[in-house]
Amino acid sequence: MGVAEVALAGYGDADAAVQGPSARGTFGVSGAGIKVGILSDSLNVLGGEAADIAEGLLPAGGVTVLREGPAGATDEGRALAQLVHATAPDAQLCFATAYATPADYAASITALVAAGCRIILDDIAYPDEPFFQAAGPIATATAAAVAAGVDYFSAAGNEGDGFYQGAWPRGGGMTQSVTIPAYVPVTLALQWDAPYEAANPGTLSAVATGGGSSPVASYRVGNEPVALLDFPVANVTRTYRVTITQQPGTPTPTLFKDILEGGGRFASSGSGVGSGSIFGQGVVPGVNAVGAVDVAQAAAPVAEPYSSTGPGTLLFAPDGTRLATPETLDVPSFLAPDGSTTSVFDPFYRMLGNEQIGSGLGLAIVRAIADRIGAEIRLGYADVSGQSGLHVEVIVPVAMTER
């Protein structure tokens, strides 16, 4: 086990699961002389770093913060830092936030490389990152880091087999059935085989109907071959009919793929077959896309059912030229433990998918607490007219409030 491999290992139970003590003792690796960069939401917004240092969960000198995350972030970066420190206790740690835009994310990657980080790891993705091309600001910065000799590790994602890929029916459309779980923000990301960073028309669009809500339409992201559809967050599981259509007068794509980012599943026949649900920097050649295995099963690893799948396919070169032969990737590169213990989350599961600020983990915690005390959760938009933001209302029984 080399230094680059132990860098993603675990704290406590995760460290033991990846045989960190054996690796350190047998090979004499401790992370000494290595600087590790971490990309996540925040490092010390919640203010727990000093206590972690005092308890030995972080290096005595703390973590060098190049760019801190915004107010309201949950310090997942500090949980990751604890995992790295447990298995590579002598490594220097740096942090830079992956928020709040892809351009900011790219700038953080570049800053970590400039700071001398030999190893970089992330656990954030944005829903409009490309499926079929190593392009866009994040992938471009990631590729530059790899070219500079950085060992880059990217969380594969939590989309499981929640994707559909197929040939586009000429002269027709596509109808799908999807089920969206309760309390989870889910974005359907629809893409087709056209190059990024070009003057792409809005070829495909989608509308979701049913589920007891008003129709939800997709929206464009700049000029990219992407359409995003944000499902309403509800307190019940809902099933939607998604209709994908081609805009009149636009070039007919050869194929399309849509991924349910954040959770959910396709009920349509043929789903889960194709190039998989790993995208963005996870399909940059040379990047290690890391799938998830339960920490208790690391000795005989089997991917978690929600761990994103491969193999990943590139149809275009970074400059947008269509490849003569599609490049098939070997992702995920390997599996690493989740569900381990940290001082920030116990257990720690990274909830990927809708990688805007607030990606589902907080709601899962709120839901668990509400169930224990018999409370009711009501979800809605913070901005009802603009249908943006999330408003969470927790209604506690009167008997509970009087105690």
Overall number of strands: 21
Low-confidence stretches: 1-11, 351-369, 381-390, 398-403
Mean of all residue-level pLDDT scores:
84
**Spatial ordering of strands, largest sheet:** 2-3-1-4-5-16-19
Tally of separate domains: 3
Class inferred from helices and paired strands: alpha/beta
Account of the protein in words:
The chain is α/β, with parallel strands linked by helices and 403 residues long. It folds into three domains: 3-159 and 277-338, 3-Layer(aba) Sandwich (Rossmann fold); 163-266, Jelly Rolls; 361-401, no CATH class. The protein has helices spanning 3-6, 13-17, 20-27, 49-54, 76-87, 102-114, 136-147, 361-373, 398-401; strands at residues 35-40, 64-67, 92-97, 119-122, 151-155, 163-167, 174-180, 187-192, 204-210, 213-217, 219-220, 226-230, 238-246, 255-261, 265-266, 288-294, 313-316, 322-328, 334-338, 376-380, 391-395. A hairpin with a 5-residue loop joins strand 11 (219-220) and strand 12 (226-230). Helix 6 packs parallel to helix 7 (136-147). It is globular. The termini are far apart.
Layout of secondary structure:
Layout: H1 3-6, H2 13-17, H3 20-27, E1 35-40, H4 49-54, E2 64-67, H5 76-87, E3 92-97, H6 102-114, E4 119-122, H7 136-147, E5 151-155, E6 163-167, E7 174-180, E8 187-192, E9 204-210, E10 213-217, E11 219-220, E12 226-230, E13 238-246, E14 255-261, E15 265-266, E16 288-294, E17 313-316, E18 322-328, E19 334-338, H8 361-373, E20 376-380, E21 391-395, H9 398-401
Parallel strand pairs: 1-3, 1-4, 2-3, 4-5, 5-16, 16-19
Antiparallel strand pairs: 6-14, 7-13, 7-15, 8-12, 8-14, 9-10, 9-13, 11-12, 17-18, 20-21
